[in-house]
Amino acid sequence: MDELFTPDETIEHFIEQRGIDTSDIGVTPHVIISWGHRVIMQLAEKIDARQSDHWLYGLRQPFFSGDLDGNPICLVEMPVGAPGTIMIMEEMIACGARTFMGLGWAGSLQPDSPVGSFIIPTTCISEEGTSAHYLGPGKDIVANLKADPILAEALDNAAQKAGVSTRTGPQWTTDAPYRELRDKVRTFREAGILGVDMETSAMYALASFRGVRACNLLVVSDVLDSEWQPGFGTDLLQAANEIAQKVVLESIFAS
């Protein structure tokens, strides 16, 4: 492995320019990420977290650090899609992050997982372009696209405690949401793939490569059946998001 420049060098350059230490950025070992601005703002309010004065991305990708039951934690809004998510995760790992839990949305491929359902992707089919750069030739792709089992179990247990059932299993990740073709959706549905999103497989590939932990909780926002069934902006989806936030906060410190 001979990278021209590394995440560590990026952080070193940043802190030298600012005249600060890495610790001043505010990254903690446990991180909750989301791709929804409202989700991050609500989570920050729940734990009374504060915005960092020295975050690499300023207000473009809001970053908060705080305390949850005596444990340091940080929250960050990620850009949609695998490349930006992985870039920021790399930089956070360089700052000491070791556990990532993502809270996002997914399209459901299964009719028994309607809008508001919870999916915990435990394995992935990768159709995004980032994972391949971390898996490399000769890598067992399936073995390296898995959720951390302890985090997955913690999410499932917390969801059940909240009175919500989850679906755990394989997830499809793609870079091209407007190229989710009917034949492919049908094939994946019949193969038991639970849903589709834009980041999960890359996150799991990075976690395997860097030796960190990652698991996502995805709330079903729309259903891909014979026709598209969107649930965006509905009370049902908002209520599910509120429960999901509580589930993630309860699960993030699973050992």
Task: Kindly list the characteristics that best describe this protein.
10 strands; alpha/beta; globular; 255 residues; 5-stranded mixed beta barrel
Q: Can you tell me about this structure?
A:
By secondary structure, the protein is of the alpha/beta class. 35% of the residues lie in helices and 26% in strands. Strands 5-8-7-6-9 form a five-stranded mixed β-barrel, surrounded by four helices.
Number of strands: 10
Main sheet, how many strands, which sense, barrel?
5 strands, mixed, barrel
Distance between the first and last residues' Cα: 31 Å
Q: What's the overall average pLDDT, rounded?
A: 95
What is the number of helices?
Answer: 8
**Structural class, judged by helices and strands?**
alpha/beta
> Helices and strands, in N-to-C order?
HEHEEEHEEHHEHEHEEH
Give the number of domains: 1
The oligomeric state of the chains shown is single chain
Helix content: 25-40%
Quick gist of this model?
With 255 residues, the protein is α/β, with parallel strands linked by helices. It has helices spanning 7-18, 37-47, 82-94, 132-135, 149-161, 182-190, 200-210, 235-251; strands at 30-34, 50-51, 63-68, 71-77, 99-108, 118-127, 166-174, 195-197, 213-224, 228-230. A 5-stranded mixed beta barrel has the order 5-8-7-6-9, surrounded by 4 helices.
